[in-house]
Design goal:
The complex is a heterodimer of chains A (383) and B (249). With 383 residues, chain A is an all-alpha fold. Chain A contains 16 helices and four strands. Helix content of chain A is 70%, strand content 2%. In chain A, the strands form two sheets. Chain A has a two-stranded antiparallel ribbon. Chain A has a two-stranded antiparallel sheet with strand order 2-3. Chain B is of the alpha/beta class. The longest helix of chain B is centred in the middle third of the chain and has 15 residues, at 153-167. The chains are: A mainly alpha (383), B alpha/beta (249). Chain B: It comes from Flavimaribacter sediminis.
Chain lengths: 383, 249
């Protein structure tokens, strides 16, 4: 049962992508750790942490593309799943601090001592164990996506309306996590991490390993996505995207199709967040900001939705651009981002990858335009 | 519903109103297994609404819709009803445009449609045979690997009929199958539908009188949401009410 799934997932193009990601996961840490500092191929530490961030963003964009590009669900709240995964990891990292915190409490994180709490809230229990945190990284975003999707898809909420309520979802979580009483560190979030799985989180080796782990996670997720979109289920996804009610009349349970892919996607976003947090050293409610989720849509659109490589390329390119722009002309970045999105929507509706593969005629025939997706995306940009 | 026994589709006293406008008004109709029926009527007579009700898209305000002698279709949604064996062709040909002709047919095949059964599905030799057979019937063999979006209007109509065949329904509802077709295509379609009707029940909604005559089946005339007359085409064309309402316009 599983074997044909994997064989299908590993077609020629997908194998290349996975091979490249694995190679990056191996050689970049070597170039960082083993090569002498003055070597031409040496990769400095700051570059490792930047690349680690980009990889997590790429995974988030891939997750969004699975629901948006293939099933037409334009989620403007994927940042919420990313942040929840990040918080789950952050809670584990907080529990690892132990007595090294400012207040030296062996159990309670600093912010709880500061708030005069006497014992650990119930939902913090278990997070001292990595395996538990790892399960929660998948479970919490998955559960939220399941509950949200259950109601939204069953009520046949689609298009712009669905996008707006996903946006509302992430905004509601933003407000909730800002409150100190929620027990997630309020405004400041969770930070000041010391170590992960017993390794010093600041050490060069740990950072290199985290980068490698992000690449591997991206490779595995890519495989899963590739398997999904190349299966018969993947064809159903596209059928639902293009003609939802028609697929109902062929006996497909559209709400289950959407629910499944939405939950898988949310879990991937959660993993991305969990790998992101130890690399940037902080998670705070700002990650729930609606603007973050909209940026993910821009990366995906720029790279090419409805292709699996597109969102990865889009996320990396746009973020490299962002790193450059915010350093060189900080005040112009948002204009550049807006212009980029408008430009891509107008001139490269299929994104970079879609347009390039169209030029080389590698794609069988140009895919049909989806006016609904476009208008929804434009609204996202206008937000 | 005792009266529904032995029928494939049984509509009794079905009414539905949209904002006070009675689209279907006390409509009753019985279709036997294996029967082909043509439905004609002026614009706004409620032909498409009737199909919406049978396929679960619209819920009637009152009345019974019994399928296969015992199943009350008003209690089920589109997906359930499709799985029970009711196939529908839309007025505007609706195929999955960014899929190839072959994939369109594969999606329509009567196989398990659950999330996990499709996720781990492996195309079998039987699937290929069945699809090739249908491609032959609808004459799209040569275009099997092309995107459905690139088909001509008439070919899309045929592809959709092919998809219905792949679905293997007990009852096929066909809404204006020859709209936008050339005369020779129309003739071919009539032939194809007669062929299909040998193994299942078919309900055809059509405006084209020549086509209906060509089908040579019992005709139901709808007007203002209810049945005006029923019988052979010659019989209903002689009916004064029908002439007044429709034919003699």
């Amino acid at each position: 049962m599983i074997t044909p799934f994997i064989i299908k997932a590993l077609d020629k193009k997908a194998s290349w992508v996975v091979a490249i990601l694995v190679a990056i996961a191996i050689f970049v840490p070597i170039a960082n750790l083993a090569l002498p500092r003055d070597s031409f191929f040496h990769i400095p530490n700051y570059a490792i942490s930047l690349m680690g961030k980009y990889t997590c963003y790429a995974l988030l964009a891939l997750a969004l593309d699975l629901v948006w590009g293939y099933c037409g669900i334009l989620s403007l709240g994927h940042g919420a799943f990313f942040a929840l995964g990040g918080y789950a990891m952050g809670m584990y990292l907080m529990r690892q601090i132990g007595t090294r915190g400012v207040y030296g409490d062996p159990v309670l994180p600093d912010f709880m001592v500061f708030l005069n709490w006497k014992e650990l809230p119930w939902f913090w229990h278990g997070f001292d164990m990595f395996w538990f945190a790892a399960i929660m990284i998948l479970f919490v975003p998955g559960l939220l996506a399941f509950v949200f999707g259950w109601f939204a898809f069953r009520s046949r909420v689609t298009g712009v309306y669905l996008s707006i309520i996903t946006q509302a979802m992430t905004y509601a979580l933003l407000l909730a996590f800002f409150r100190n009483e929620m027990g997630f560190g309020g405004n400041n979030g969770l930070t000041d991490f010391k170590d992960i799985l017993g390794f010093d989180i600041q050490a060069d080796t740990t950072r290199a390993a985290l980068f490698a782990a992000s690449c591997i996670a991206l490779a595995i997720s890519f495989l899963i996505c590739s398997g999904i979109v190349r299966s018969k289920f993947g064809k159903v996804l596209v059928a639902v995207r293009d003609a939802e009610s028609r697929s109902r009349f062929f006996g497909y349970r559209v709400e289950n199709v959407k629910l499944f892919v939405f939950v898988v996607s949310a879990m991937m976003a959660g993993v991305a967040g969990a790998l992101y947090v130890p690399q940037v050293g902080i998670i705070n409610p700002g990650e729930f900001a609606p603007a973050n989720s909209i940026e993910v849509v821009v990366w995906t659109a720029v790279g090419g939705r409805g292709t699996l490589v597109g969102p990865i390329i889009g996320a990396v390119l746009v973020n490299v651009g962002k790193t450059f722009f915010t350093a060189a002309f900080p005040e112009f970045w948002l204009f550049a981002l807006g212009a980029l999105f408008v430009g891509v929507t107008l001139f490269l509706p299929k994104g970079i990858v879609g347009s390039v593969s169209g030029l080389y005629g590698r794609a069988t025939k140009p895919r049909d335009e989806h006016p609904n997706l476009h208008s929804a995306a434009k609204e996202a940009a206008a937000e | 519903m005792k009266e529904a026994k032995g029928s494939l589709l049984y509509l009794d006293g079905v009414s539905v109103a949209f904002d006070g406008f009675k689209a279907i008004n006390n409509l009753s109709m019985v279709l036997k297994p294996g029967e082909m029926r043509a439905i004609i009527g002026p614009n706004g007579a409620g032909k498409t609404t009737m199909m919406d009700i049978i396929t679960g898209k619209t819920r009637p305000d009152s009345g019974y819709v019994i399928f296969d002698g015992e199943i009350d279709l008003t209690q089920h949604d589109e997906t359930d009803i499709a799985a029970m064996g009711v196939g529908r062709k839309f007025q505007k040909p609706t195929v999955f445009e960014s899929h190839t002709v072959w994939d369109n047919l594969e999606l329509a095949l009567n196989r398990k449609r659950g999330v996990f059964s499709t996720l781990f599905y492996k195309t079998t030799g039987k699937d290929r045979e069945q699809i090739d057979e249908i491609l032959e019937t609808i004459r799209l063999i040569a275009r099997r690997d092309e995107l459905a979006a690139n088909l001509s209007h008439g070919q899309k109509q045929w592809l959709e009929i092919g998809m219905l065949l792949a679905q293997e329904p007990k009852l096929m509802l066909v809404d204006e199958p020859v709209a936008g077709m050339t005369d020779s295509e129309t003739d071919e379609t009539a032939k194809l539908l007669r062929e299909i009707a040998k193994t299942r029940s078919v309900v055809v909604v059509e405006h084209d009188m020549g086509f209906v005559r060509n089908l040579d089946v019992k005709v139901t005339v709808l007007a203002e949401g209810s049945v005006l007359a029923e019988g052979s085409l010659d019989h209903v064309s002689a009916n004064e009410k029908v002439i007044e309402n429709y034919l003699g316009r």
